[in-house]
Structure formats: C-alpha cells, structure tokens
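Quick entry between incubations.
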Amino acid sequence: MILTSSELVTLRQRPHRTDLFLSIYKPTILIQGQINDASIARDAITGTYDNITGSYLDVEEGMTLLVGTAPTLSDVGKVRIQFFNGTSFVVAQNSDISWQNGLFITVLNYVDIWTVFPRIVQDPSGAPDEVIFYKDYDIPYDPITLKQNEILGSFPCAGPHRAAFLEAGTGSNLYWTAEDTETVSTGTLGYAWEFEGGTPSTSAIETPGWVNYVTPGHYKTKLTVTNLANGGIDVTYRFVSIYDRENAVGGGDMPIVKWDMNNLSGSRAEGGYNASIKVWEHIDDIQDNSLVVIFADDWYGNTEISLGGNAKNCSKIMFVGYVMKGSIQYNYRESSAEFTIGSVTELMRQGTGFGISCDSVVTPTTWFEIQDLNIPKALYHYLRWHSTVLKVTDFQYTGDARKKQYFDTDNTSMFDAIDNFLRTCLSGELVTDRQGKLWAEISMGTTHDAPTIVPVTMIIDKQDWMDEPSIEEKQMNDVGYLEMGGVSYDGPATGIFNTFMSEAPGRTHSNRGNVERIEGLTLIDQAQLNNLTGDLFAYKNAKYTVTQNLIGNYRNIDIVPKEICLLNVGVNDTVRGIRFTNKPFHPISMGWQWNSEKSSLYPNIVFNEVTNGIGGATEQIPAETIDVPELPTVPVIIIPPFNFPIIPVMKTYTWVINTPAVGGIPGPFVSNNKIVSRIDFYCVDGTSVTFNIEKRSLVGTPGANIVVVDMVASTSNGVSISPSGGLIPNMTWLWLDISGVDGAVTNFVVTMTVVG
Amino acid sequence: MPYKLNGTVLLTQPTAGGWIPRETLGIDGNGHAIYPSLREFEMIWDLIDLDTSNQLQNFYDTVSNTGTVTVDLPLFNDLGATGTYHTYSGCVLREPEFGQYFEYNRQEAKLLIVRIRT
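Done. Structure below.
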C-alpha cells in the first residue's frame, strides 16, 4: 500500500503500539436433518432427509454439508452441496463418506475451498464414441445455450474477510467495494450485494462504501457480478465477524482473548504466509479449514490509526488465513490448543485438481475448446470450473491478455496448477498477500524496466530500520548463460504462431555461472523476449540481498503485489563501505514478531535487488522450409517371370474301426492332387484283417485300389508300406474296402499319409 | 493520594513503588533506542498482612487471565507537585508474588502492573 506523505509522517511517529485480536469465524447453521434413505451407500451423491430443524431456503450451491453421527458433527465427513430442497439433496462426487441411513446432516452458512471434478460419461443416445461432458457433476457442458466456454465472466473482488469490534455509539463500519473486479471478456459489469447483518442490507453499485453493523455475530456478505453484455455470472462470498469490546456495556461476544502467535511469516517463493497459533481457551468447535482473521488496533505515537494492507479501507485487517488441516493439537496439561494457520494458497495446495487440456478456437463446439483463449481466460476457466476459489477469495491478474493456443494442467494441486502455468508461460507467480488476496503476476525479475514502472512503496533509511541490516553481496554470477524461448500466437482466426529464442548475456557466456534454459513461454514478439531474457539474467545475478528488521508496524509493506522500497545505506554504516542511495529493492519475504504484553509488532524483511538488464540477443531459429537436393534417377529393374516351386504339404487320414467286418467304409474327400507316401495298419485281438483303399470318383461307384495287392493287418506292432505311384487325383473319395476278417478282431486301425 | 486498584484503596500501601525502565526493542539506524509504547509499574511490600495479601490476590483472581484494571499510580513524568496520582485504565495485573510467612504476615510481596499507557 502506498501511503500519502502525511501518512508516512504518522507511520514514523513513535512509539508504535499494536493490539492484535484473533477471530475464528463460526458459520451459522442453516438447516439440520437426518438422512432418511435406506438405500444410501458409499459414493452417493443424492439422498433424502427428514427431522428438519431450520430452513433450506437460504442454502446455496457451494455451501458445506457436514455428515456426522450426531447433530452438527462432521465425524463422518463433509462435502460440497450442489442442490438442496426441503426433502432431498445433491452433493459433489465423493467416495470418502460412509453414507448410512440415520446419519445427521448439517448445512453451514459457509463456502469452503473445494476442488471441482468434471465428469465424462458415454452419451446413451449417441454413437459409442460420443460422450457427455459435465463441468460439475450435474452441469453438462452446453455449447448451444449456456456456452460455458464462450460466455466467460469475471474475477469478482469484494475485499478481504473481516473481523471488527463494535464501537460505542457507532457500531462497526466496514468498507465494501468491488472496484478491483475485472472481466475476462468485454462488457459492462453489474453488481448485486447482500450484507447479512449490515445496514444497508443490499446494494447494486460497484462501491457501496461503508456498511454499518450493530449486533455482534458472524455474517455473510454475497456479491454477484454479472457481465451485462454476455450474461456471465460469478458469485463470491465474504465472511464477517463482529465482536464486543472488552468491558462493553451489555457485551460479552468477544474474539479469542487468551492466545499467542509465533512468527507470522511468508515469502513469494512459498506463495503466501503461515503462522503458529496457541490458544488457552475453549475452542472445541474449531475445525480444519476454519477461517481465521487477525485484526488490530494500532497507534503511531498518540495517533490511533491503522495504516497498510492492500485492500482499500481495510487496514485493521492484519492477516486472513485458514486453519491448516491436521494441525490442531490439544495440550491437556496446559489446557491449550495449537494449530497452524496459512494463506489461501496453503489451502489450495491441499486440494488436488483434475488435469485439463483446452484448445483455442473461434467458436467452441465441445468441452475442451475455449473461445479465443488467452492468459486470463485460462486462469478463469480453471478457477471458475475446477475449484471454488473465486467464491471466497479476491483474485487479480496483473499481466496482459496475450493469446494462448493451448492450456494444459497436470493432475496436481490447485495451487501448483495455476502457479506452474504462470511460471511456465509468463515467468510469473501466484502469491497471496497478508489479507488473503491472490495475485497472479509477472515476477519482478522479468518485469521490463522494473525500477521505473513498479510502484515505490516507501523510502527506507536509518530511521526505519532496527539493529543492523544484513547485506549479502555476491561477488560472482550465479548464472553465466541464460537461454529462453517460446511461442507467440495470433489467435484461432489466423492460427499464426511464431517461435522465438533469445540468449543472455549474448553469444559469449559470462566467465562464471551456470547455464540455464527456460522454454515454453507465451510471448508477444522477439523484442519482448530479448528484454525478458536480459532482465532475468540481470535479476538472477543481482548483487545484493538485504535482510533487516524495521522499527515497528510497517504494514504498508507486503510481499505482493510487487512493490519497490528504496533503501539507503551510508558509506559509514557498514564495515564494507557499501553505499545505497535510494537503491530499488523489493520484499521477497516477511516475518512478523509480535509481543502482546509490550504491544509491539515489527517485521523482518528480506529484500532482493531490483535490476534492469541489457537486452538479450536474438537466437536465430532455422527456417521451416528446407531445400532438399534432387535425388538421382534410379533405373527401372525388370524382373523376369519365374514359377514359384510347389511346397509339399503332408497330411494323414485315419480309419479306426471297432469289431471290423467285411465291407466298405467311406473316407475323406480329397480336393487336391495327393501322393500317398505311406500306409500304416494294425489290428487288435483275432488274427488278421485283409483290406485295400479305393480311389472313387463317385462315392457309390467302386474305383481302383491304391495298392495293387490287398494289405493284411495283423496283431503285430503294426505294418507300414510305401506304395509306389500312389497318386490320388483331386476330387476323389477315399474308400476303405475290408475283404476279409480272420478271428475275433476287436479293433482295426489304418493311417494313410499323403503329401501334395 | 493512595495507590488504588479499580478505585479501591489498597489496605496497606506499598513500601515502595516505581516505574520499571522499558526494555528496548532494538536500536534504529540513527542510534536511537526503540521502546514499546507501554510501561510497567512495580509495587513492593516488605511485609504485608494477610488481609492486604488477600485483597491483592482477589483483585488478580477477579480479572484473572482476560480482564484489565484501572490503577491509581504516581503520575508518570510528574511535572507538578509531588504526590500527584493518576488513574491509568486498561492495565493488566501479573499475579502477586509473596515470600515466606512471618507470624501471619507475608514477606517480600510484589505486584507488577503491565500494559500501562502513559
């Protein structure tokens, strides 16, 4: 936050005093009931209920449903609501809830951060390869009417979640504005506010301004943003906790009083803040992902005023975060509870999203096509349809709307999906500020002419820092050569894309440093890439990093959005003799130390030097067209005709006759010419069997014998003969002719082997 | 004017009392010490009767771990006549400390008052 000159004067008045208060939002219960559905089982997404307490009329899509063994409990699980009426409900896909008839359900007036999973099923009325794509479990993609990939909305911004005290005579006045809301399409935006517990209770303008609260409690504010040109609608909620002051007449609704905070710290690399909280009060109802707001009373000298914070007129809000899952620990000996709180980015890390892949087209006809895709549309598509982040968090993208042909994310956490996308395409980052707003921005190192265009928050000199600043000075480059490359895309109308590469410092590497290569960037043109490469090379080799404590409550400084602090160090201030005269640095990490007894709050900040690089050099990429040399003429090879040799095939025909008698037994029909190679025969019991094998052109007309003399099968081990000239012409029946049986022969076997 | 807690005169006034020097949070770049904005005051009794020790302990137990008290103390940075007392509100009590008993009295009692806005 950039302070005015008079505010800066106030900021430097001493001593500083800050009292911090811990608020844990307690959502009200809209409706409770008991499952009345004997068929409900695991994986259920619908169910019926009864034994109702409360009303379903205020239940909205996205709210949280608790499932438990008793009213208000969530020991069985919790899930996002899709639909709710007086008798039934529809929830998001789930497999981690052991649904049973008789379990208790509780609907909280609260929206959590969830991953939203799409669903693809085979179209029952279409061809086998046709599918129906659902953006959410029960919201099919509709390219005709709803056009979810064409009618795009906005990033609704309503400010941070709030907590405040009622002041005697005035109540509590909270400021509301949607001025940071940005559409990813074109068109004018319309606003509809609902202020539960506040006066006025509604508003239809962008900045309603101050809303007054007079009764302690936990309330919900709802903002609906409508794109008046295309009808795109986005809804976001903020949660407000109003408390009595200590010793307030008739009061008693106080925030957490007996608590302590250990080192609230955050960095751009981590994407946000976290802190450890210890409470010596009864907080059995605290749950994972509970919303936490730390708010403050501040004095600078004798002036009671809060300064700082990125949200307009919300300077009393020091930090907004959530109780991290699995971090709640109870110490029964000390009667205390400890838990970790983290920014919304920490919560996004805990939810794994669906891998997605989208293409840019002029007119989307299917679920994986987005109209004229660009960076903000890609971010909107993911956050709007694959998470509920936009429902409870301000989001601002500060880059440009360069076009993108493809948008792909892995099956990874919500945070990594967006952060990796920004890092890969823009060399950017996703970072949360202290008040809980998500910023998607291009990194300081790749912001061209950053010392000039990035806003200066304040000039820091000796009066501002405490104890000794630690100045780290690099004597050698970390990076000796940097190569970067990427693609620019003109959009689906032309489909033209260009590839660019650039190198820094140039064709010749620096004498020291590693080689780094970055590819896959989404670019504008070669000149932009050359600037980017040169700037990043200079930033990675920045000489100075400064770590220092500041003397007090400088909440006007934050790790995001990127901002510059001009540091001053005199030549006699360090033994090294370093001189900084309004040298630009930017905060990359901050840690806050708070002493409740002394009411002192001061930060430790790590500053990185802000650099300006000389442009990188263009690397020529070979042209797509390659001259192929003319091939020599190959003479035609004439192959003379030749006959393929016949490869002989061997086959056997077998007769097995029990109790043979004189007479004929038909055999197989031979369709091709065959040569008899051998005949094997034997009999069992009795003495002998006399036989021959005929070749018949008709099955009923006797033919010539294959063997001139009849064969005699005896009870020996078998006889084998190889008749000469045993040709069987094609289209011939084989006929076994038994002319004599001597003795009680029980079994007679003949096998004839042919080739051809 | 006597020492008071929440407007009630202490049954036995302290043997001694004094403003405790503030510990510096650090030194700024110009060499100036950085102090917290709140001060502390300590009352000491060499010997205290049981009624007064009970009064002190009850004061602490009443506000316990969450409440604040008003305390009448010697005016900090008194420029006027000696003995001027001022009522400071929103102060926090530490639990009174007592030494060994001596014939139904308690020795070396101390009461520390913190978070005093002067």
